[in-house]
Amino acid sequence: MELTIDPMNRSSPVPALTDHLGYWLRLVSNHVSAGFARRLERHGVTVAEWVVLRELLDVDALAPSRLADRMGMTRGAISKLADRLVAKALVDRQDDPQDGRAQTLALTAAGRRLVPRLARLADANDAAFFAALASRERATVEAALRKVVAQHGLKHRPVD
What we know:
Blueprint: E1 3-5, E2 13-15, H1 21-41, H2 47-57, H3 64-71, H4 75-87, E3 91-96, E4 99-107, H5 109-129, H6 135-152
Antiparallel strand pairs: 1-2, 3-4
């Protein structure tokens, strides 16, 4: 571990930024996310919008409040994302048939066609960034990260 002593010649050693695993995770994460955001931008979608679209793919319809809970976002933020996706004709907002006061969100036909294309972009982005890892190394990294996620009970989807 490389230690740096502050210029005032104090005796307490201060670890370098690069001595922290969090530094390396954030560095890689920032670049993976930025690369994916650029790929999505070409299709007129943001990362947060992609997450909403992907969440809606496996359900017929979902209440905005449930989507907010899944994504760890406020209902207001989900409402703004939904508004943008409705304007892009990728999501439809409907009255909830079981509760006339509530609404649900569902993918439109165009949204259902777009999600697999965007998923291929996510796959390509991962392949590009993690090509340096052998498949066994990649599996080890993923298993370690899943273990940390489970230990801390992390549930919200990353959207930025």
